[in-house]
Amino acid sequence: MQSEPPIHPDAGSPASAASEAATSAPGRVVLDDVAIRRALMRIAHEVVERNDDLDRLYLVGVPNGGVPLARRLAKSLHEVADLEPVVGILDTTLYRDDVLTSGERPRLRVTEMPSAVDEQIVILVDDVCSTGRTIRAAMDALMDFGRPRAVQVVALVDRGHRELPIKIDYVGKNIPTRSEDRVKMRPGREEGLLEVALIEAAGESERGEAS
Amino acid sequence: MARVLIHGGHVLDPRSGRDERACVLLENGQVAEIGSDVQAGSCERVDATGCLVTPGFVDVHTHLREPGQEYKEDIASGGRAAVAGGFTHIACMANTEPVNDDPSVTEYILDRARQDCPARVLPIAAATKGLRGEVMTEMSALVDAGAVAFSDDGKTIMDGGMQRRVLEYSRLVEKPLIVHAEDLTLVGDGVVNEGSVSTRLGLPGNPSVAESIHVARDVQLAELTGAHLHVAHVSTEAAVSLIREARARGVHVTAEVTPHHLSLTDEATMGYDSNTKMAPPLRGRRDVDACREALADGTIDCVATDHAPHAVHEKEVEFTEAPPGILGLETALPVVWDLVRSEVMTPMQLVASLTANPAALLGLDAGRLDVGVPAYITVFDPEQRWKYDPAKGFSKSRNSPWAGETLQGRVVATIVGGSLVYHADRGVLAP
Amino acid sequence: MMGTDLLAIEDLSREDIELVLETAGHMQEVGRRDVKKVPTLRGRTIINLFFESSTRTRTSFEIAGKRLSADVVNFSPSSSSLKKSESILDTAKTLDAMDPDAVVVRHAVAGVPKRIADELAAPVINAGDGAHEHPTQALLDLLTVKERKGRIDGLTVTIIGDIAHSRVARSNIYGFTKLGAEVRVAAPPTMIPANVDCLGVKAFGSLREALDGADVVMALRIQMERLTGAYFPSVREYSGTFGLDRAKLRFAKDDVIVMHPGPVNRGVELAHDLADGRPSVILDQVRNGVAIRMAVLYLLAGRRPESEA
Predict the structure, then answer these.
(1) C29 and chain A in contact, CB less than 8 A
(2) Chains A and C touch (3+ CB pairs under 8 A)
(3) How far is CA B1 from its chain centroid?
(4) How many structural domains comprise chain A?
(5) Hey, are the CB atoms on B318 and C198 less than 8 Å from each other?
(6) Structural domain of residue A76, as residue ranges?
């Protein structure tokens, strides 16, 4: 999950490509922008429900996908409970457990933590959770910024295949996948829209494009 | 003595102008017969099919390191490297330990050569005691002991007055004075040719004028004294011009150029390989081209290897600390044969620069291939490609910029005094 | 991406340089945290092999390595014992047997890091070799200028001083020209190397002309002991003609910045009041040095030629 390879343009399976009419992007859209908004609104309600000290909320997006989601969640929290939580960005690359073994060094991404996290209720926001390793790295990184009162995790998509004992507190949608499949959040068809696509690996019975 | 028949080759002899396919029969250490239909009977045969058969090569500039630095080379190993490279005569420089500035050292070298060296060794004695440029050596006694020329090579006689008197005195013995022409005050710390390469490498530059200024001084001193000046390892366009002009005026100046100064530019130094560090340094393209032209037009008389063995541990140090010089005997032929391939020289001209010309400037009875002359012969295949590995060569040292490279042109057989002493398939056969 | 060693800016592409600068930008953020340490190189070993002493550069590499959680070992063989007893390649092989993940090499002779890199499996980072290159210095200078000016492209950079003997000058000339700046050098002719135009710069004997319209001025440290007399007549004459002060700086642009690789000979190459505060950015250079070296270590440490492809 952490070293996700770039999407191969021909990687979409024939079946899902047929069901997707208008887009040239590979894979099958499993969450469109409306569905994402709806999921975040529900999550906002859950966050409010589950936490007492809502002034201490501190949303932290994990780049790249977690960043726009954290901003949207902040908006939803504002709509739901008139909250204005701090939104930070936390790159996990320097904390990854495969950073030295993955050949080319991954490019670093922005980290921007506007204020201290001590005694805050930090909600880590990621787009897709699978092995749990990114969340593990994010928690380690977070601890270097202080001592939060609590850490909770939002994942827009939980696709299973956990390799670490990591629990997602707020899930947008559970999507069962095979571990060879890929799930990707990406810009939608119009500017400002997001969508999540499932790109299935070519199955044994199907003749996939050799890559 | 055994009879040897060299058959199937093409004979090239610059002195007689012979340039024909012929067999060569050697008998009693001499060339007995040259012809297309030689009846040899029972004898040792050398198949020279596809090869050139030429006089044995003569190197006027070799460092054999014995006595004193036998870990780098000795007379036996240097001699083996020589015959493997086609050289039947090698003139060895005086910068040994002790310096060859005394007849006893000259005699020692010749003694050692008689015992265990397949090539003929011709000692060059120092011009000044200890190469210090202060006190002249006993030139007459050294010539009596067997010295063929005088040189402080490796060092330079910076004192113009001393240089003048050494040249004057050398007329007494009628031997050439060989000069390593570098003005040391201009060389300074320089270790690579001064120019774009030294600037990019960040290494101290050695300007080409360090050579030409010294050559200018010495050709004028030769003119003044009437002595025979021989300029070692010419490397610059300016020095070539000075020598050309001096020769035109009738000054007795001869000159040599090394295979590396004919083939490599200072660009070869870009990887900081100390096997590209020489004195004088590898120069720019214009200088290399000028040297190639000068060899072709006769301004420079001959190719000389400046074979300079150094141990691996001596070369594997900082570029500035490494001693200058590289091996030359075993790679000279393929490296310089490029001048024929690129049509700068004819095969006959190039063979002359390896044989008749160097023999003439040292006054040797060598460098020719004719009936009745002593049999010193080199057989080589100018086309054959082979991979040079110094570890498999005959020198004790390995300092070569051509290590691991595929070279074109290979010595097949070398004959010294009528005996086959080297064959490419069989190695060195006899001292 | 760049190769497995960092030996010379001359070897880098524009993209390589930009990647290092971008990565260093993120490392600056790490340096602003309370906990300035990330676990990236935990369990990895970096050897600082300094044949020539340089407390500043070595400290900067040491801090960079430690902020990435590497174990940093300083190895400073005294040059005298080394010269006679051990060849460079022996030293390299000895180090290789200790299995380091990166070796940072400083040596007084050009080319030594390259020769060591040829022998070593571990990545080699040149921390300055003779008068050849000092790549991390140029990278930190580029980062500093980019921070201050927002760009490198189209700037005019004037480097003043002993260009002939300066590794800082060479690396900066390559770095700034590769990123699209115009580089000028100004010095007495004795300190301009042969064929200097091969580096892609124009040499000036007049400081006034060299400074005309300059966005960045970099003064180099003058090695007074070695050069006085042989390369310029006296310190007084040098500082009078090529020493930078506020009066001379007026020929440059109003928003010019003044750089120096340190340590400064105050009153020689740089007037006392120019070394501190505006327009000097000397302390930014030092600060950025750590971020640049973190970036370089992050990008190279532990990489092996085989693991590429």
Answers:
(1) yes
(2) yes
(3) 30
(4) 1
(5) no
(6) 33-178
Provide CATH 3.40.50.1370 ranges for chain C.
9-134+288-308, 135-286
DSSP B187: H
Plot region of B147 (φ>0 → left; ψ -120 to 50 → alpha; else → beta)? beta
Closest alpha carbon to C199 in C222, C176, C231: C176
Strands (E), B51-109: 52-55, 57-62, 87-92
Q: Is B306 an active-site residue? A: yes
- Considering the entire predicted model, what is its pTM? 0.91
Mutate to test the interface with C, among B317, B398, B399 (most CBs of C within 10 A): B317
A84: CATH: 3.40.50.2020
Whether A103 contacts chain C with CB within 8 A: yes
Query: Between chains, do A94 and C35 touch, taking CB under 8 Å as contact?
Result: no
Predicted complex ipTM exceeds 0.90: yes
Indicate the fold that domain C135-286 takes in CATH. Rossmann fold (3.40.50)
Angle between helix C167-178 and helix C14-32 axes, rounded to 10 deg: 110
CA–CA min distance B274, chain C (Å): 10
Residue of C nearest to A98 (CA): C40
Q: What angle do CA C111, C112, C113 make, to 5 degrees?
A: 95
User: Which CATH number is C9-134+288-308 given?
Assistant: 3.40.50.1370
**pLDDT tens series, chain B, 431 aa:** 579 999 999 999 999 999 999 999 999 999 999 998 888 788 999 999 999 999 999 999 999 999 999 999 999 999 999 999 999 999 999 999 999 999 999 999 999 999 999 999 999 999 999 999 999 999 999 999 999 999 999 899 999 999 999 999 999 999 999 999 999 999 999 999 999 999 999 999 999 999 999 999 999 999 999 999 999 999 999 999 999 999 999 999 999 999 999 999 999 999 999 999 999 999 999 999 999 999 999 999 999 999 999 999 999 899 999 999 999 999 999 999 999 999 999 999 999 999 999 999 999 999 999 999 999 999 999 999 999 999 999 999 999 999 999 999 999 999 999 999 999 999 999 76
**Edge-to-edge strand list for the sheet holding B18-21:** B18-21, B10-13, B52-55, B377-387, B406-416, B419-423, B427-428
Buried b (16+ CB within 10 A) or exposed e, B346-383: ebbbbbbbbbbbbbbbbebebbbbeeebbbbbbbbbbe
Domains defined along chain B, listed by start: 4-52+373-428 (2.30.40.10), 56-361 (3.20.20.140)
SS3 C106: strand
